[in-house]
Every structure is written in C-alpha cells, then in structure tokens.
Design the sequence.
C-alpha cells in the first residue's frame, strides 16, 4: 500500500489549486451568478481561463482533447477544483456534463463522440441528462420510468415529462432515457441523443431551487412527440439502465470529489474566522465548543478524502465497485453536510449572510444527500449485499489483493 | 399536574389554525414574498385578515389592544400561527416586533407606549432592534458592544455600526443598544428609542441571507451622530443589558413556538407525500427507512412542544427561567432543524424545489440555531449553572412546587 | 395546563428521595449484589426498610395494601426510587413484579388477587413473566409464540421453552403466555398462573448477562408437560395478547420512570466529579468539552421527565396511549442511554471501574433500548399510525382537551 | 497511490485469520476467562498455539525474535488477530505489552532489551506500565504526575500511587513513570524499569471494571520507597514524557487495529443472526430498520480501516503523525463503539447475554473512548493545531508527497 500521490499528479493538484485561488475566486463576486446558476456567459469566461491554464477537461481521454486522468487522478484534481463552486465549471467537470462526457466516451459511437463529446470537451457546449420524472414517474426508483419511445419506422417517437433536469436551459444536446416500445413490446429502457433546441422538447419552467450553482439551473422538460432517428440511440436499444449504471457509479464519485473541495472551503473560511473573532474572553477557536467542531471537520474531511480515493482506485483496477460507491456516497454526502453545517454554525450570524461563500455552499450541498440516490437507497443497496451473503469489498484485504 | 388546555385557549388555537389554513396559506404563492422578505404591502394585507378575524396582536396586553395572552397562551397560539411562515406576520407576532412589544410593555413609559406600542399592536407599524454589531463588535457576546451614546446636554449622541438588523428597512422606529458615556465615564449599556427614518440612521445595505421570511429583511445600519433626547431612553440609563434580558428570555421562547409550527408544516407536507409517492414496491411511508424518519419527527415535535409549554408556564409563575429557557432554546432549535431536514430528505428531489414550502422553511430555520444565542452559548450557560452548584429547575420537583 | 406537582405528591417524592439517600444507598456496597442480581436475602432487608418507612408498594391499590398511586404519581415516586438500582427493589416496584402486580390488579379474579397479589404487594414474594422465547420463538414479534397449552379435560398442559425470564430463580409464581389449543383448534394466546417451584417448570440455566440488578437474574426456563387447572387461567382464554397489552403500556412507562432516576444518579456522580477533578488548567467542568456534555445531560433529563409525566397523565385520563407510549419508550431509552454514556465518559478511567455506580448503571441500562420492544419496533409502531392517517395524540391540542 | 496489500502481507493476514478462527475461537468458552481477565495459564496456552503457528510477536524486530512488521503490517495483522478478544493475547500483541515492547525496542539499552524485551517477545513474560494515577494525580493530563523519584546516591527512591494499571497482577516487570528530583530539583519525568514482584511495589487491590479481557486485569498499585538503581532508568533521566510520546502514538494506533477486528466480529455475529432470525414477516435483515444499521456498520468498518492504515503508513514514512493519530483515535474509537452498539441492538435480547461474544466486546470496548486519551483531549489536540495555523497532514496532498 502506498498513500503518496505520484509527483505528476501532485503537481497537477497544486496547479489546479493555484488556478482556483488566483483565477476563479475573483469571479465569485460576479453578478452573473443568478438564482438559476451562473450564466453561460460567465461559464465561457471561466472556461477560457482554464483553457489558457491548460486545465480544461482533465477527465476526458487525450484523444478527445482532455488530460486523460484516471479515476484517482480525478479524485485529486476535482477536489482541488471544487474549492470554488465555480471551479468545476471552469474546468468543464461540473455535473451533468462531466458524467455525460464519461458516458459518451464509454458508450457512444465514434461519430457521436465527434459530434457531442468533442465540442463539450473543448468547453464550447453543455448538455443535460433527462432521466428523472415527477411523481408518479421515475425518481429514486428508476423502474418507474414513464417516458416512452415508440419505434416508428427508422425513428423513435418520444413522449413524457422530465423534471429536475439540470442545465436543460442552454444545453446543446440532451441524453434522454425512455422506456422503449418496439412493435408494441416493451424492450426496456434506451438512451437517446437529441440536439437542442428541438421541436418536441419544451422547457416547461425553470424550477426555483435551494441550490443555485449549476449552469442553466434545473428545469421541467416536456417531451412532446420528439422524433429521434435510430442512429441517435446512445449505446444499444434496451440497454439504457445498464448504460446508466456505467454513468452512475463514477458520477457518484465525482460528485463526492467536487463537494469535498467545497467542504474544505467552508471549513477554511470558518477556521480563519474562528481564529480572529473574539468572544467571551478569547478567539472562538480558543473555545473548546468551537474547536471541537472544527476538529470534527478535520476528521470528516480526512476520512472522506480517503474513502473517495480508495473507491476511485478500485475503479481504476477495473472493479465495478457498486456497493463500495454506495458506501462512499452515503458517508461523503453526510460527512460533507456536517462539515458545512458546522462551518456555518461557527460563523454565527455571518454564516447566514452571503458575505461568505458558506451560505451558498450550505444551500448547494443539501441536495447531495438526495441526488444520485438518497442515502436511504444506498443504505439499502449495502444491506441487500449483506443479505446475499456477499462480502463487501470494503478494503483490500488479503483475498482481494 | 394537568396537561389539558383550558377550553378557551383550545378554542383560540383552533380558531388560529383555521385562520392560517383558510386565510394565510393562499398568500404563500404571493410574488410579494421577496428574497428580502415579504413586502410591507403584503404584510398589511395579512394584518388586515387577522384584524378582521380578531386575532391581531394576541400577545399584547388588552389595555393596548391585544388579547393579553399568558406565556402559555402564546405557546399555543404562536405555534398555530407558525404553521405558515406568513402566519406570525399576519398576527403581528413575528420577530423582532413581538419581542419589542413585550419589551415596551414591560419597560416603556406610558407616553412611549402610546407612541410606539399602540400603533405596532394595531398592526400599523413595524420596528427594529439594533443590538448586533459586525466583527469586532457585539455578536453572541454582548459585552463587546462598540456603539457609543455620549451624553451631550440633555441629549445623547450615538455612533456605531449595527448589522443583521432585522426589519430595519421600513421600520417606523428603532430600539438602539449603546454603551453610554456620561462625562467621560462608561455607565453601562442603555436602550434608546428613535423614530425612523432619521437623520443619523443610514441603511448601509440590505444583506443577502439564507432566510427570506422576515419583513424588511436584514440590514447593515450605520448610526452617525444620531442625536436622541433623554426622554427617548427606554427604561433607565445603564440598564440596557438588564432590559435586554427581560426581552431575551421570552423572545427566545416565542421563536421556539413559531418555529415549532413551521416544523409541523414541513412534517405534514413530507408525511402527506410519503403516503402517496410510490417507490421500490410501496409508498415511501411503507418503507421503514422513511417511516422511521417520520416517527422521529413525531417524537421531536412532541418533546419540543412539551418543553416549550413547560417553560412558558414557568414564566407565567413569575420565574426568570434563564437556564430553563437556554435548555429549551438548544433542544427546540436542534430538534426543529432535524425535523425540517428529515422532511426535506423524505421529499427527495421535490424537497429541493420551491414547489413545497419545505425548501423555504429549511432555509429560514437554519439561523434559529444561531440567533438569540447559538447553541454553544446556551450549553455554556447551562454548564455554568452546574458549576455554581445551583440546581437547574428543570421540572417541578417536590421542592419547586 | 399546570406543571406543578400537588403538594401531597411532592411530599411523597421528597420522602422517597430521602429514604433512598439514607436507607438504600448504604446497601449499594453490599456483597449480596451478585452477577445474577441482588439475592433474595438482600431484597428482604431492603423491603423491610421500605415497609418501615411506609413506602412499600406505592403503586398497588389501597385495597391490596399499597398507596394507590395514579400513573402520574408513579412517574414521580418511581423516578425518586430509581436513583439507586436498589430503590425499586426496596419499594417492590421493580420489574417484572411491578408490571405483574398491575396486571393482576386489572385482570385477576378476587381469589387470584388474594393468592398472588396480596403477598407480593406485601413484599413477601416475587414473580416472573414467561413470555419471551429463544429463536425461532417469540421475541420482539410476539406472534411467533411457540409455547403451547393444550386443553386436557379441565386442565391445560403446557410445553415450551422460555428465555430471558427475569426473576425466575426464586419466584413464588409465574405468569405464562402460551398459544392455546382446544380440541385441536388454536384459540389464541392465553395467560396462566403457576406456583413455583412446580413439577413441569425447570430452570435450564441462569443466563450470564450484561446487566446484574434484577433480583433472580435472567433464566432459560423449560415448560415440560406443566399441568395447570382452568381456574388458574389469568383473565380469559384466548385473550392473552389483549391482557399483555394492558400490562405492556404502563410497564413500558414505569421502566422509563425508574431509569430516569438512575440516569440522574449517573449525571450527579459525573457532575460532582467534574466539579472537583482538575486537568489542563481547571476543573473538568470548567472545560466546555465536559460542560457541554453535562448540559446535554440536563436537557435530556428534563425532556425525558416531561414526556414521561405527560404519558402517565394521559393514562390517568383513560387514554390507551399506545403510540404515545411508543414515543416515550424510544425517546426515554435513547436519551437515558446518552446521559449514562456521557456520565461515564466524563468520569474517564474512573467510570470504567466499579468505584462508582455508573459502571453498573451503564451495563444495566443498555438493555432498556431492547426490552419492552426495541426502538425499531416502536418507531415502526409510530410510523404505522402515520400511515393510517391517524393523528398522534402527541400533546393536548385544543381538539384533545 | 496503491491500496493493494503486498502479497506477503496478504498471506500473513490470511494465515492470522485462519489461526484465530481455528485455534483461538475454541478458547472463548474457556472458564479461565475471569472477571479480571484471562488467567496467565490460559495466556500461556494461547501463546503456545501462536508460537507453533509461527505468529508470535509479529511486531517485534526480527533481531528479538519477531516478524519485524512495519506499522502498516501491524494494521493488517492486528486487525485479523483482534477478531477474537483472545487473539492479541495469543500473538503477544495485547496492551500494554505490545506498547511496552515497542518502547523497549526504541529506547532501551541492549542490556535492558536482553533482559526485558527478549523474554516478553518470546511470550514468556508480561509487563505493566505505571503511569496513570488516581485523582488528584495524572489522568488524561499527564502534567499532574504526583509520583516522585528522588535521587539517592546511585539509586532513585520512588513513592506514589498508581491506578488502572493493566496487567500488574502477574507482570514480570513494570515501567514506572515518576517526576524526578535530583538534589531537590525537579528535572522532569523519568521512566524506570523494575522487576516484579518487588519490595516497594504493592498491589493494593484488583479493580472491578466494565471490561474483562486484559490478562491480569487492572490494579491499584502503591509504590512505597521502591529503590531503583540508575542503570534501570529507561532512556534518559527527565525524558519520560518524550519517551512516553514515542510509545503513545503507535500504541494508540495498535489499539485501533485490534478493536477494529473485534468490531468486525460483533458485526459478523449480528449479520449472521439478522439473516436467520424471523420477525414481522421476514428476516431481521430484510427490514430496513435493521439493514440500515448493518449498512452503517459496513461504512464505519470501511472508513475506520482506511484511516488506520493511512496513519500506519505515515509512521512508516517517518512522520510523527501526532495530530493524525489523534484523528484516528477519535474516529476509530467512536465508529467502533457505534458498530458494536448497533450489533448488540440487532441481536436484541440475545445481545444482552453472554451467549455471543458481543456482550463482552460491548463491555470491553467502552473504555477505548477513554484510555490513551479520551476523545475530548484528542479533539482539543486537533483544534490546537488549527489554532497554530499548521496544516493538518490529513492526507497526502501534493505538497506532502
């Protein structure tokens, strides 16, 4: 076992951290950060900075213009980028684009990659992923999928209602998940690609949400007799859930990575304040009541980083890491929420205001215990594995090595 | 011991609950709810409804136009009103006005009551309380008060910077806390009354904050050579902290009462949804993972209500209940946060959106673990009592009865 | 509402507290406290003290020699008695006797009361309750009852294996729960009375357990062709579960009452120590890290006392309080465990030793989160009520009064 | 970074696990496990098994007969050994011997190593570490050390009272910490070696404690004019605290390692039971209420293992890892307690009995949140580092590699 970072990755981490500090943080005061996320205009300014710094799309295979990072490499760089909520946008590693790029790189045809992946990797376009549906459709339980794609000649005709679609406004294309009917027979879920804007894709409304750091915000999207040629199927017909799985496990981890950076930011702001603010005869940090909270932050940050890196390493070894990634999702999302919540508490009234980034991080991070599977679904996933008697590959024990 | 409500109070509770349900809830979709709180226009519409229903200012002595509720009466009615974030605004029992009215009723001269309390009790005016200061001034530790009032002839001249001043924008008057200097000698803190707007009182900026349900929002306020005649001292010179204490303990409890109503609202929304939403083979509520969360909500609601009512009863018995109110503040603010957080979690993605009130309640309630003394300060208050060997009058034991 | 204790109850509480302090505490060093509980010899010495003090069997109807306390009265007196693990034994209000006396008073015939209740109320005898069975029989789920009682002429013949039977060793009689077969037909569960020792009742072994404060310890008991006449049916044939319910709800509360006293004891020991022990520049109590723990104890003690007294009052009003008692069981058992765990932590190494009573209380109290229904079963009970849409009568609201 | 175990270490882990399963578990029913720990007779039987299996003293340098494991190697092997509370005793890696051997290997002269380390590494002898004192002496705060060693010619004369001295009964020698006075001047704390039994070392009493798995139990030990020659100083005069530090950090980690194995054992027992025991319509494990608890166990086990191995690796890199080991101590001791507590809860009534090892593990593990520094002291250690502005080397970031 070796916990040391390879020097090149360490250097890339340092470079990313410096980039965020020097180039990204100044944008945090930019009025183009709206209640529905940064504008595309702001996004382009940020991307230009990352491009100039040679840090754009580090997760994308080199063939498509990225740095070709391993999962472990992503763990390190994404955390550094996440130190500002704008960092992942600058590097083009924000959700849902990052996961979509990963999916395209894994599943798309070469023609599809050229058409969709290349410009997105270059920071020119954005995308969205149309899976979630409002009640009574597919939420945490994807089997409830209500949207249908009916085979009609060489095309598919898609109808349905999607919801909480991040980045729909302004996206250049959509990946759409639909239950597929071929000659009246349900052949399973399929993923489709569709350029946007498109006839048949209507943004019903922008949703007002607790968070506000995703470019394009979140929307309700109606699919109304959207016609898609068979060539725009992503992967194979009926394999939508399998492909989704290929997207989900790594996407789950990259969320953890980025949020860990944001949690560190909140903690650093709180620690800095606690070291200066006087009350009751000393700095806040000199009081055990505050010091213990920040100590717990340190512990949560440390353990979270370790479990993320371990899971990333597992993926790099070719493991599916389904249950392991559930463990990381639960632990990281809850630990990170605790860190941010404590940081806000340490700041007191100041934490309630937008005078520091902590207020925003607090709002933004709450959803992380919900999306990509709420903690409850992941706990159940882990428990089912126990029920099957299968050993959770929690850590490399002898038998695993 | 008797846990039953007297019939008249039960009837008033039912009337308040019906009023909120029928008259207040429809206003929740009103666009006049801004990021800096409901507008005064919206407030006046709400107040008119409460006035018509005979529910305005239930906490104010009858002599000044209210219903003259006891503390226990407030515990019951304020919870019912708090079921909507707009309810307390309608009844004129929202912070900081409610606490200010209590303070005026306790401390003000009759002339001051006629001038300030009467119109506020009638729902015509609003007020603000200028105590908190930015770093390095008075936050959780009021002894760090930096604002000064210098005796100058028959007047006092006040200078200082205040911060997180709720409702300053649009308030008809301010209560100002300042360190008082008479002939160069610091004679302690004093409270002053000042009509607004006033020369010498400048709203530096509206603060962007996590919460958005206080009328007038929160502001930074500069006091610049504000001249106040001695007749506008509230209470006695040098007695500011003692008067603040008279305000703080009851105000702490009324916060708990209102928030308890809001927590019930979040819980009801979540329970209703969990009983309808299907996932993984049954309703959410049929899953232990969700059912246990809602069961914990029930437990937290129940215990919180009991401790609030007990402390209110203590005040009605003439007890100071300083430590007891600290216990209630810690328990209630943390239990209520848990309730709202669980409610949001049960709602899943829906909870992240403004499609239900839970998103707003979640944002609004976070500050409650901070204002009126963060949990840490109250825990320390309780611990110090233990250190002094004084029994905490936690519950009527024999020796107390 | 009125939270004040009536003066007579307050006086009885004070008398009980003084009795425990002066008469019971000295017995805590008695070597007759064995790993399987106090000996009957020690029990008799304690009972003699309570009898002399006029405090024996306060819960028993006056007609049967007790003080005829209401449920609320029990809440007050049992807590005072629980301040020592030996207090309830002295007053003859320890489990399972106290619950059994309640059951007999409610359900038994007059002849049965004279034979079983009277000597137990007089502190002369002890009893046991044979319900729980080892895997795969009835544990938390009583419907899995495996023990059978087969009607044979005027008798019933009982066979089965019982487990975790508190006080079996040395008990004068047993109440036995068995699935009843009449002419081959299962007519439901029935309760039977049986004098001990009896042919057909064999104590297989004393169980070594974490706790050690129940007289007679816990045993595994085999029922081997035990013949019981029909006149020894307790209540009605087939009504065993209904009768058990009549026992369970109050018994659940009396556990909470006694344990609350024990938790106060642990807290008092820890607070006293923390106020004397020096470390890192001050007493432990002067450190926020310790002070906050003890403050949380105070809060937990206070809220627990309130919810217990409220539920007792509900029972006194004739309510069944099934769900309410579940709420109290969950809250009290978990809060009390936290209190004791924190008290032990504050004591540090000393807490690990039998030099204070905290070590014993910690061992003894752990089971309380399990017996009388583990927290999980009670949470589910509460959740099911929510699923049925029935309002939990958590507190007297107007509609309840 | 590489999370894979090297094959030789994986093989040793597997061998240790098999040894515990096949050779050690059968001893768990041995009556020589007393309330004051396993007898030395039982210990010798266990050691003989480990010796035969080639697993004795794996942590000791090869020169002194051990396997010369690195810290990381210890993390792996000690966890496997800890799967039974008797495993570490068999391998001679239990506290306090393991830490004492480490200390001797680091600090002792060659003559001292030959005399004390060699026979202990061979499993022939045991030792004790006399540091902790009763109130008002040195507990969590070692600076309160009251025991004195007064230079008298070439000897030191030691007087004092020690407490909670693990393994004192039956130990072959003691390491004694005492404040040292040379010609009336306090020259700091010094460590001394003393053969046992010795005139001047009196075991006042065996302490009755919550735990019962340390050989020799815990004792109160009086040092009464114990005369020690200067040649028996361990390390240097006045360097006692520095030497203690060299012992403490690794010893803290080895506690975590062993306890992690015990926690896995408790979890495995609970999981096995939950998969078989039926209640309320399915196995316990099929209920989310239980499944979630076991899922949380998996998460806690996984994260704990990772932070332990990382800290061990840091030590192997030559880092002092003072704050890092504090983080591990807090996290591991609290996570492990949660695991064991949940395991007991899942077992229900069975968990309360000695019919499984969980009851013992629960008792034994509680002290781990206290000894080697209670959580509160370690949290403060972490907070102080933050206050000094020093970065916690929580994980290898670029700058660390």
Sequence:
């Amino acid at each position: 076992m070796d916990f040391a970072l390879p020097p090149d990755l360490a250097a890339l981490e340092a470079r990313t951290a410096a980039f965020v500090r020097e180039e990204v943080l100044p944008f945090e005061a930019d009025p183009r950060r709206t209640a529905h996320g940064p504008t595309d205009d702001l996004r382009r300014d940020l991307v230009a900075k990352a491009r100039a710094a040679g840090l754009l799309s580090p997760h994308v295979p080199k063939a498509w213009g990225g740095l070709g990072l391993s999962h472990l490499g992503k763990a390190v760089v994404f955390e550094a980028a996440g130190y500002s909520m704008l960092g992942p946008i600058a590097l083009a590693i924000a959700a849902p684009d990052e996961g979509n790029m990963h999916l395209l790189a894994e599943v798309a045809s070469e023609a599809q990659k050229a058409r969709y992946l290349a410009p997105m990797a270059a920071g020119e376009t954005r995308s969205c992923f149309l899976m979630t549906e409002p009640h009574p459709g597919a939420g945490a339980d994807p089997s409830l999928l209500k949207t249908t794609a009916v085979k009609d000649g060489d095309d598919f005709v898609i109808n349905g209602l999607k919801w909480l679609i991040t980045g729909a406004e302004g996206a250049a294309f959509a990946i759409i998940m639909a239950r597929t009917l071929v000659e009246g027979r349900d052949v399973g879920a399929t993923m489709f690609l569709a350029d946007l804007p498109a006839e048949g894709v209507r943004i019903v409304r922008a949703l007002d949400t607790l968070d506000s750091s995703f470019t394009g915000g979140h929307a309700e999207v109606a699919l109304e007799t959207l016609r898609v040629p068979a060539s725009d199927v992503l992967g194979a017909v009926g394999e939508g859930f399998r492909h989704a799985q290929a997207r989900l496990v790594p996407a789950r981890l990259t969320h953890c990575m980025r949020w860990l950076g944001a949690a560190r930011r909140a903690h650093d702001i709180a620690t800095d304040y606690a070291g200066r603010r006087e009350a009751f005869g000393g700095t806040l940090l000199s009081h055990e009541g505050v010091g213990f909270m920040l100590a717990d932050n340190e512990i949560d940050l440390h353990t979270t980083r370790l479990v993320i890196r371990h899971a990333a390493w597992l993926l790099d070894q070719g493991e599916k890491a389904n249950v392991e990634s559930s463990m990381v999702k639960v632990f990281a999302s809850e630990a990170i929420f605790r860190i941010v919540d404590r940081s806000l508490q340490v700041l007191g009234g100041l934490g309630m205001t937008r005078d520091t980034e902590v207020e925003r991080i607090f709002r933004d991070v709450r959803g992380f215990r919900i999306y990509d599977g709420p903690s409850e679904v992941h706990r159940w996933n882990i428990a089912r594995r126990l029920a099957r008697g299968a050993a959770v590959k929690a850590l490399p024990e002898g038998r695993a090595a």
About this structure: Chain B has three domains: 7-121, 127-236, 241-400. Residues 313 and 319 of chain B are 9 Å apart (CA to CA). Residues 7-121 of chain B form a domain with the Butyryl-Coa Dehydrogenase, subunit A; domain 1 fold (CATH 1.10.540.10).
